[in-house]
Each structure stands twice: as structure tokens, then as C-alpha cells.
Amino acid sequence: LGLRVPPLEFRIALQKEFVLYMAGVYAEELQRAIENQRFKRSWEPLTERYLKHKERMGWSTKIWEATGLLRDSITYWRVQRPINGWAIGIDQKAHYKTETGLNLPVRLVALWMEYGTGDHAEKGDGQPGFPGMPARPLFRPLRDRLSRDIGLHYQTFIRENADAVDELLSIALVGGLGKQ
Hints:
The radius of gyration is 21 Å and the shape is elongated. By secondary structure, it is mainly alpha-helical. Helix 1 crosses helix 5 and helix 1 packs antiparallel against helix 7 (162-173). The chain has seven helices and four strands, in the order αααββββαααα. The protein has helices at 8-36, 48-57, 69-72, 106-115, 139-148, 150-160, 162-173; strands at 74-79, 85-90, 95-97, 103-105. The longest helix is centred in the first third of the chain and has 29 residues, at 8-36. It starts with 7 loop residues before the first helix and ends in a 7-residue tail after the last helix. The strands form two sheets. Strands 1-2 form a two-stranded antiparallel sheet. A two-stranded antiparallel sheet has the order 3-4.
């Protein structure tokens, strides 16, 4: 047929770039989902008591947002385990500083929001008799949506990076990719 398959090195390099691209897309989509309240219909509403507290404090009344610190702390970073790739989550250095001196990790609040606390905890490790907070999943439904649309994201990646992909392919085809 005369079809030339790109060398393995090219496909591996392209895959690595696409994974990095998707980490950025996921982080941006998480921030956008909080801003736009994308999954609000599936989330239990905030209690009246907490809504009034947020209003008194001058915080956002949106779910998954109070001061904006959590949304702004969503990022991605390189990981080696369990596989070599990228992790998407909350910056581990981000902490809420409370009036009482509590230094609360933002990633812990995100975990509580995602899985719930007390009787509401999805993992079965809730504390009986402690009502806690219901799960309001954000990371998981967005991950599922991005996975379902992965082909569209790949097409966008190729289109947005056409020049770099062409350059990478030309280097690979002349046998120089592994020597860069």
C-alpha cells in the first residue's frame, strides 16, 4: 500500500506530549467546572447554615469554592509511581489558615468534598452518628467525561500542535529522534 508507519520513537514521544497536554486540560476543566458549577444538579445543595456562614464571611456561595484557594490550587505534576506520568490534583503546599491557627491542607478539603465525610463517606469509613458532609464528586465525573471524549481531545491536540508534530515526525523519519 505504500503506507509508512512512523517509528516507535515518534509514537512514544507523541504519546508523552499528549499525556502532558491532557493533564493540563484536566486541570483547566476542573477549575472551569467549579467556576461554572458543571455538576451542581448531581450535588446535594449546601446547608442553609453553611450558606449563611459563607455569606457572612464574604465567600463565594458556590459548591467547591469559598475563597478560591482550592480552585486556584488545582495543578498537575510529574510522578514516577505507580507509573511514570502525570498526577492531577491539589498543590500539596496549599493550606487554609484559620483564625484559630489551624493549618488545614487544601487537598484534605478536596478529598472530603469528593468522597464526603461522616455518615456520608462513600468509602464506608464514615463515623456513625456524625452527619458530616455529603460527597459532591468533581474529579471522578470529569475524568470519566474526558476519558469518553479522548479521541476528540487527541484531534484537538494534533491540530493545536501541528507544526511541532510535523517537526517531530520528520526527525523520527530520518532516524534522529532518539539522538536528541
